[in-house]
Amino acid sequence: MFGNDWDKVLQEETEAEYFNKIRYTLAAEYKTQTVFPPKEDLFSALKLTPYHQVKAVIIGQDPYH
Predict the structure, then answer these.
(1) How confident is the model at residue 65 (pLDDT cuts 50, 70, 90)?
(2) Do the Cβ atoms of 30 and 41 come closer than 8 Å?
(3) Which of 6, 24, 31, 45 is paired with 13 by a 20 to 30 Å CA distance?
(4) pLDDT single digits (tens) 40-50
(5) Which residue from 5, 24, 23, 3 is spatially nearest to 14, judged by alpha carbons?
(6) Which of 5, 7, 41, 62 is catalytic?
(7) How far is CA 5 from CA 19, 34, 35, 46, 51, in A?
(8) Cα 43 from Cα 3, distance rounded (Å)
(9) How confident is the model at residue 43, as a pLDDT?
(10) For residues 62, 12, 6 and 18, what is the CA-based torsion angle, rounded to 10 degrees?
(11) Cα atoms in the Cβ-side hemisphere of radius 13 Å centred on 38
(12) What's the 3-state SS for 30-57?
């Protein structure tokens, strides 16, 4: 899903039933509504930064609008 070591770190979560429900819901919303960030950027932080390089994680909400 991410193309790096995050795949293994988050494997249990990404295979969980709740995660699949979220994925299906988001897929439907991307088809029918304007959703931010763009679909291709949804996990860009995890795709661009391998887990082994992470020193800290700051969780927040991006102000897209």
Answers:
(1) low
(2) no
(3) 31
(4) 999 999 999 99
(5) 23
(6) 62
(7) 19, 31, 27, 9, 6
(8) 11
(9) 93
(10) -20
(11) 2
(12) HHHCCCCCCHHHCCHHHHHCCHHHCCCC
The two three-digit tokens of residue 41, written as one number? 């950027």
* Residue 5 known to be catalytic: no
Amino acid 2: pLDDT: 94
Q: What is the DSSP letter of 58?
A: -
Which residues, at least 6 apart from 11, have a Cβ–Cβ distance to it below 8 Å?
none
Minimal CA–CA distance to 63: which of 36, 26, 27, 35? 36
